[in-house]
Amino acid sequence: KLDTTQLVSKDLKLLRASVIGRDPLNINGYLHVDKGIAHGVSIDQPVISLDGFVGKVKYAGASSSIVETVENQGFTVSAFDKNTGIHGVVRCQTNLIFDYVRHSDSIHVGDSILTSGMSEVFPKGILIGTVQKISESDDLFFKRVYVAPATQVNLLASLYIILNGNQPETEDLP
Questions:
Q1: How buried is 87 (Cβ within 10 angstroms: 0-12 exposed, 13-18 middle, 19+ buried)?
Q2: What DSSP string describes 32-69?
């Protein structure tokens, strides 16, 4: 029988955790999970589901943790458009917004938005969502790009914590 509590994929060590609670004041912003420090969990570790990006560990207790999700107001993650290479930041402002996309940038509804790897927390290439709508804004430089999340946080019963996170590659020095 395959042990799915820990999986190793694409050089990432994943720990499966079950959702055991939700913040009643921010139902999709924070999830309580059944894994903690005793299982190798620590603050700021990335969290994913089978569908894609979820968020990061905000608090790690001895045997349980709290995950801050991409749907928490003010959450941000560095991202890029898989089809065009345009870089920006995905943030939650009631809806998910792919921010800092210039009016002149070519971006299309249906494009995949992935983590860019340009942070100390999230590895490159995790699907955050797809472009749902693009609208011009009053901003002189940037348009509004709305993203439909890849993961439906309100339906999650389990998720995966990336234990080795976005560790930089090291080379042997002479």
A1: middle
A2: EES--GGGT--TT-EEE-SSSEEEEEEEE-SS-EEEEE
Q: What is the spatial distance between Cα 21 and Cα 29, in angstroms, rounded to a whole number?
A: 12
DSSP string across 72-101: STT-EEEEEETTT--EEEEEEESEEEEEEE
The total of other beta-carbon atoms located within 10 Å of residue 11's CB is 9
Instruction: Return d(Cα 151, Cα 135) in angstroms, integer.
Output: 23
What single letter denotes the amino acid at residue 156?
L
Q: Give me 54's structure tokens.
A: 């979820």
Give the tens place of pLDDT for each residue, 30-77.
Answer: 999 999 999 999 999 999 999 999 999 999 999 999 999 999 998 999
What's the N-to-C CA distance of the chain in angstroms?
44
Q: Phi, psi (5° rounding) for residue 153?
A: -60, -40
Spatial CA neighbour of 134 closest among 74, 76, 85, 81: 81
Q: Are 43 and 61 in contact (CB under 8 A)?
A: no
Return the H-helix or E-strand segment holding 142: strand 142-149
pTM assigned to the model: 0.85
Helix (H, G, I), strand (E, B) or coil at 149: strand
Q: Report the C-alpha gap between 59 and 65 in whole angstroms.
A: 6
